[in-house]
Write a structure and sequence with these properties.
Length: 92
């Protein structure tokens, strides 16, 4: 039987509520080891990779709408196609 290390698991969810529910279920199945599994939303992943946060540090405005276009610059596609791909992937 092959054992998968919890640190090597990434769970991506479409919304925050689903992420919380999946974390709860994983904890019920695995106990303390569940703390080492990474579960986040698509926007959370984009923020982690780009180093952005919900509030723009310079203006104090909501930076949420710009997170996916910023993430698109990390994909090996042209900017327009990357943004379109991420919008389809995230269903908005």
């Amino acid at each position: 039987m092959c054992t998968i290390q919890p640190e090597s698991i990434l769970i991506l969810c479409f919304n925050h509520g689903t992420m919380i529910e999946l974390r709860r279920r994983i904890k019920a199945l695995t106990g303390k080891r569940s703390a080492r599994v990474t579960a986040m939303t698509f926007h959370g992943l984009a923020m982690r990779i780009t180093g952005r946060c919900l509030l723009d540090p310079h203006s104090g405005k909501n930076g949420f709408p710009g997170i996916i276009p910023s993430m698109a610059t990390w994909l090996p596609l042209k900017q327009e196609r990357s943004t379109q791909y991420l919008r389809q992937l995230c269903c908005f």
